[in-house]
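Session log. Operator J.P. requested a structure for one protein chain; no other inputs attached. Running the standard single-chain path with C-alpha cell output.
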Amino acid sequence: MRRVVVSLLFIAAVVGVPAVAWADVTAFWGFSPTVATRPSRGFGFGLSLLVVGFEIEYGNTAEDLTKAAPSVTTGMINGIVQTPTSTQLYLTAGGGFYRERVGALQETNFGTNIGGGAKIGIAGPLRLRLDYRVFRLRGTPVQQTSQRFYAGVNFSF
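Structure written below.
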C-alpha cells in the first residue's frame, strides 16, 4: 500500500507541476488600408501559458485629412490561442475602447477586434511579430470596420 501511495504522489508531482507562464512585449509599426493607406503604430504586453493567454494593446493609426481618413486610437484586451512551437502561430479576439477623429468630428466608444499572426524567433528571446486585425467599431464612427497590418519587435521573458 505504501508503494502505491508513494507512486501516486510521485506521478502527481511530475504531472501536476503548473505550466510555465511567459510574458512578452511588442512594439509595432504598420499600416491601415481602410479608407486610405496610412501609418499605424503601438505596443502590447502579453501573458500566456502554453496555448492560451491574454494581451493588452494600444494602437494608433494616423489621420489623412486629404482623403477624409480618420485617426483611430485603440486600447484593447485580447484573448490569444497559440501554437506551442518555436514559431508561434496565433489567433486573437477581444474588445476595448477606441477614439476616432477626422477634422472636427470625433467618436469615442467600444470596439471589438479579431485577427491572427505569427511570432517568429530571431535570436534568444527576440522575435519578429507579424499581425493582421479587423476592428469593428460601435457607435457612429466614419468607418465601422477598420483593418490593420503590422510587423513588430517582440521580446519574450
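Operator note: DSSP finds one helix and eight strands in the chain.
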